[in-house]
Structures are given as structure tokens and as C-alpha cells.
Design a protein that fits this description.
This protein is an alpha+beta fold. It has nine helices and eight strands. Strand 1 and strand 2 (95-102) form a beta hairpin.
């Protein structure tokens, strides 16, 4: 899964330097809102909220912002967000899976369809691309002072399918059903993940020439800039040449 790991690394670096940091915070606020609606304002008994708070720490979101988001989400008149997903093909046959949290589904689907159309892609029906992706738990953990051998043994025993160590970060992959148990294991070990989430990992990748790949990435960035979009997954192969450009 190293190709996917490389793309995650690029996204992390871009996020650290992103002038639109408020957009990252906005997405976490939405996730907090959904978590509170589902399980209340106490993170102790609300795993989804606990995860959202941990991810907020990972992007250095101020504690006051986090607490304000939790309090606001607990109010009776708080906005309600719906989780929706969209699947389609970018040009050159690259598969794209978009996850959204929205308070207006009609607006969101219209925007998603227009992005595909503008970039010679096509929005497909839900489920059409499910065979191209596996849903996995992905944890990004700073290497810090961890003993690599001991750490790997512990997380493999806890259900890790694969562990990579690149550029000072461990990336752990688990089956979707082992996501919660891995979260618990890391908490028991006193380890805070910089980011933990369920991702859609492509089973195969599409390799394109540089010019074609850049056209696809422009569509990916358009999705990521939409306020309703939480995550975008694709099966474009991130070659070293593309990585260098990014």
C-alpha cells in the first residue's frame, strides 16, 4: 500500500502548509457535530467524538475551537449533517470516491456532478465502484521515541494487517472491523495518532502519463475544495514524478 501511503504523506505536508487551514478545521467541526448528534457530548462514552477530537489535535486545532464545536453541536437548534457518498470516473478512467457531510443534499449532488462534467468525468450510481476499493482503518503515528520492533509486534497482535515506516511516521492499516480495537490498543499504549480514519484503499491503480495525471489531480483538488466534501479517494497511481511535482 506504499503508493497510497505516499499520497497520504503529500496530503499531510500540504495540510501543514495550507493557507486554507480554516477549511480543515471546518471539516473537523462537521465531524464533531455528527459525532455529538450520534452519541452525546461526552467523549468518554462516544468513540466517534473521541476520534474527532484526536484528529483535531493532529492538525493543531485550538482546544477552545474544539470545545466550542462540541457545545454548539449539543444545542437543540444545531445544524444537522447527512453523510452521503458519490462515485464516478474522472477522465482516463480513474475511479473517484467522494465522501460528504452536508446539510443540503441537492446542492451537494449538483456540485459533485458539475465537477465531474467539467473535467470530462462521469458520476455513477452508488455501489458502481465498490469493487475497486477496500475500506480499511488507517492510522498515522509520529515515530517519536517508539521502539520500532516492539511497536510493530504490539500493533500486529492487535490486528494490524500492514505497518509502514516512512519519513518519521508509522502508517498502520487494519481491516474495517478492527478499527475500533486498534484505537483502543493505541489508547492503552498511551499513543496518540496524528490521524485515524476509515479510508477507501484502491485494489488496483491506474498509471497515467504526467500530463494526463495532472488533469485528474485538478479534478481531485476541485472536490477537496468543496465545503461539503470530507474525503476524496481515487485509484490514480502516484508515481515518483508526480510526487516530485506535488
Amino acid at each position: 500500500m506504499s503508493g497510497h501511503s505516499k499520497w497520504s504523506t503529500i496530503k499531510r505536508k500540504k495540510g501543514a502548509l495550507d493557507a486554507k487551514r480554516s477549511k480543515i478545521f471546518s471539516r473537523i467541526v462537521k465531524e464533531i457535530s455528527v459525532a455529538v448528534k450520534e452519541g452525546g457530548t461526552d467523549p468518554t462514552g462516544n468513540p466517534r467524538l473521541r476520534l474527532a477530537i484526536a484528529n483535531a489535535k493532529g492538525v493543531n486545532m485550538p482546544k477552545d475551537n474544539v470545545q466550542r464545536a462540541i457545545s454548539k453541536a449539543g444545542e437543540k437548534n444545531a445544524a444537522s449533517f447527512q453523510e452521503v457518498t458519490y462515485e464516478g470516473y474522472a477522465n482516463f478512467g480513474v475511479a473517484v470516491y467522494v465522501e460528504c457531510l452536508t446539510d443540503n443534499v441537492q446542492r451537494t449532488v449538483a456540485n459533485i456532478r458539475s465537477y465531474f462534467n467539467k473535467h470530462s468525468g462521469k458520476l455513477e450510481t452508488n455501489g458502481a465502484l465498490s469493487f475497486l476499493f477496500d475500506r480499511k482503518g488507517v492510522f498515522t503515528i509520529p515515530e517519536g521515541g517508539l521502539d520500532e520492533e516492539e511497536f510493530m509486534m504490539e500493533v500486529i497482535d492487535a490486528g494490524a494487517e500492514e505497518v509502514e515506516n516512512e519519513e518519521g511516521f508509522f502508517t498502520i492499516y487494519t481491516a474495517m472491523e478492527d478499527f475500533g480495537s486498534m484505537m483502543k490498543k493505541l489508547e492503552e499504549m498511551g499513543i496518540e495518532a496524528e490521524n485515524a480514519e476509515l479510508q477507501r484503499i484502491p485494489r488496483t491503480t491506474a498509471k497515467l502519463d504526467k500530463e494526463s495525471a495532472q488533469k485528474v489531480l485538478r479534478l481531485i483538488e476541485m472536490f477537496e475544495e468543496d465545503e461539503d466534501v470530507q474525503n476524496v479517494f481515487h485509484n490514480l497511481e502516484m508515481t515518483d514524478e508526480l510526487m516530485a511535482d506535488l
